[in-house]
Specification:
Blueprint lengths: L18 H4 E2 L7 H15 L18 E4 L5 E2 L8 E2 L1 H15 L15 H25 L10 E4 L2 E3 L4 E6 H20 L3 H22 L9 E6 L9 E4 L9 H10 L5 H6 L2 H7 L2 E4 L9 E4 L21 H21 L8 E2 L5 E2 L20 E2 L5 H6 L1 H12 L5 E2 L2 E2 L2 E3 L7 E2 L1 E3 L4 H7 L4 H10 L3 H11 L44 E2 L31 E2 L18 E3 L2 E3 L29 E11 L2 E11 L13 E2 L15 E6 L2 E3 L16 E6 L14 E2 L14 E5 L2 E3 L14 E5 L10 E4 L23 E4 L14 H48 L6
Parallel strand pairs: 1-20
Antiparallel strand pairs: 2-3, 2-19, 4-5, 5-6, 7-8, 8-9, 10-11, 12-13, 14-17, 15-16, 17-18, 21-25, 22-23, 24-25, 26-28, 27-29, 30-32, 31-33, 34-35
Helix pairs in contact: 3-4, 3-5, 3-13, 4-6, 5-6, 5-7, 5-14
Protein name: Endo-beta-1,2-glucanase SGL domain-containing protein
InterPro entries: Compl_asym_regulator, SGL_GH162, TSP1_rpt, TSP1_rpt_sf
Keywords: Disulfide bond, Membrane, Repeat, Transmembrane, Transmembrane helix
Length: 863
Amino acid sequence: AASSSSATRKPLQTGVCRFGPSYKWDDLLTDPAVQDAYTASMLHWDSEFASAGNGITSLGLTCDHVDLTPEGAPVKKGECGASYTAAGQESLHIEMLALIVDKTSLAWYWIPGAANEDAAVAIAVGRLKSIIEAYEDFRKRYPGLGGFLPWVSVGPSGFRLSSTNKVVLPAADNGQFAFAMLAAATALGGSGHTELAQRYLDYVTALGLAVNTLWLRPDGKPGTRATVKNAWAPLSNSNVELTGKNVYPFEGELMTFFMDMYGSWNSSEARMTLWKDVQYYTGRTKEFKDQSLPDGPILVQQGWRFSAREMWKYLVLPYFDYPLSRRIFANGERARTWYSHLKGLPGLFASAYDAQHHYHDNFGVLNLSMGYPVPPDGQLMVAPYGAFPLTLVDRGHGLAWHRAMVSRPHMQSILGSVESSEALASPAGIASTTSWDTKVTMDLAALGGVSHLLRRALQASGCYKRFMDVVRYNHGPWMYKTITGEANPFAPPPGLSDSDDAPSSAPDFPSCGRLPKRELDSALTASPTPAPTSSSNSGSSAVGVPMRWPLQVLGPTPAPMPPPYPWSTQAECFANGPVQPKRPPKDPRFLDPSEEQRAVSVRFKGVGTVSVRLAAGRGCGHNFVFAVKACVWGDCNTCPAPTKCSFLQWQVWGACTARCGGGHKTRTREVVKIPTWTRSGSSGCHGPILQAKSCGVAPCQEDCKPRDCAWGLWGDWGGCDRCGGERFRRRSINTTSMCGGRACKPTDSEEMGKCLRNCDGRKSFCAWEDWSAFGPCSVTCGCGRKKRTRNLIAVDQPPQDDGLAVSMGYEERRLKVVGIHSRRIQTMVVAFLSGCCSLVFVFFAFSRLGRARHTRAQPLLPE
């Protein structure tokens, strides 16, 4: 529904700040209306955190966190809760503002003080304008950073570095940031704010030009940390030191996608080098087993820590457009919920601070991870944002688990949800702080994330097909796996005894108390009309007409067309005159450039002239042009005279992809003069922007010299699968064999190394895993064999296994083995010495006996 009338609609009531235990959310799992009421309350109270003086500065820049006093009041440090921020925090803020500008249903509740959706949009646009001004100043001030963000100080004058030497840029946070800027450009352009959209697109283009200089390693793999030697110096490879390898399929993958689609590349082969190791780790699996599971073991993608935070990328890009990706993701959330349910935990694990304000990235599921030192039980915390991945795949279950965690003692404040709650302590303590990543990730998930905005952006820039091809490639190993456990439902959330009624003498902050009696959740949904439910495909232009058009592209082919709009009930506007009501043949939001009519001649709902605004950008290796259209009131015969499209000269041909045997080379050209639209669409940009031709067609048999295959350098060691377990490192082929040269053995591409037996300095224990299933029989008839295996793993508690002496700690086992070897050596030495002594004794005895015989045999001498 269009949302231009949102000012006349009564919004949902948002209740008290302690809304978790104050209402009976019995239908939260299944009732969309109740889910909307809960989401509106969550967004409204979390918005108090995202307000000036708390989580943001007066310029709209984020502050990392806001600590809480024992009474639940915010602690301010300077202009806001903290004097610093980072790219991840900025990305969350920008993405929420983009959803508000795009008029995503319920998103406007996140703006404090907004009376309705239109007021919230105006505030969000104002913030985005202030934010881009700060970023433009930052990029000019520190050219060596390319526009990307380190951990940086914030204040009334914007961003400032405490030191310009050795500035560290993390890849994971900045990948989130780059796509957040693109989401903002898409939302702004689609709502008619084209000048502001162009500024965000210009910034994204600048990031794309800088990204490979900062994070592309010499071996062609993406790095994890770029250290800029001098932020004031120009951007250059010599000014950057790279460490780490960003090859795991978790939140850092966003940076790899940005490098692939918006960085500068010389060949498609170089781009694919980014993904070879990612595919390997995407295909690594673990199985969650427990006899209490309703439908047997659950196969999941192996996690780093199996923390919910690792799923951040699914908030951003449209991974779920590939059905297999969604199935694997859903199985991970089944395992996450059942692990907590069967262990009796009052919530879900995700990286967070503990009650002593120590940060932990090892709140996860050990048996589903690559291995890590397990914190003591007293340090384990459950965090409400641990439910954000579940919310993306099942909104009802995700919100229900979130409600259970925020309803625990002191887990809600006047700034919304609190960081985390002790999982096993009674009464449970809290990490008395609020932060962007442990709060706004859940807010984004409840609204569906920004994948719909970035799907539009990828389609517009011609990158959507590339994105889907890479996602399909990375999941290739899963095509040969049987995904078990999909019939298991998501586990139910904790009951009231572990949430609302958890033991505590004073479960609420004085400033955020619960209602005396738990009320029905219908108290929050009693509005006579529903909350604004505008979708991301509707809205109003900058001039107030109830229609908003997203960005379109002249050039690469976007995704398939959605269904057409219904029949119009009004006269519609063409570029040079009104026409009679008629249904467009295809949805005018998208352009199929394969048709003859490339320049988009569309009919608009509304009456008036067509206003066309353009924005240029760069993506997937070429320039593109965005067109943003909206109808405005007035005479339909005032359009300017059409202009034709013109191109630059073709660039020189690139290098041939092969010396012989057949190859190709390409050249490109760019649009320099943008056309205006005519009724027939004949003034569009007809003609290719990319040409290719054959080359290197001579046969390779003549003068072909044998060349052996050569390996490249070894990559970094991967993580250990467990204490005392294994780790791997990989390398790629640097030079392929040809003309009969020696080929590389595939088995030489990977090397296995041993891991430490005692990883964290504490006693660990050895225990057997369950037996695997029997393999196939070695013969089809007669007498054969089939095998099954099991492994020893490290655990932090003595196993309960009477049949095996496996409860001995690793160090004790090592000492025992050393003692056994020592005793064996001692025994051998004693035996050897005993043998030597025996030989000496025998030799001496035989010598005496021989002399005695010789004496008796001599004749007596005469006297």
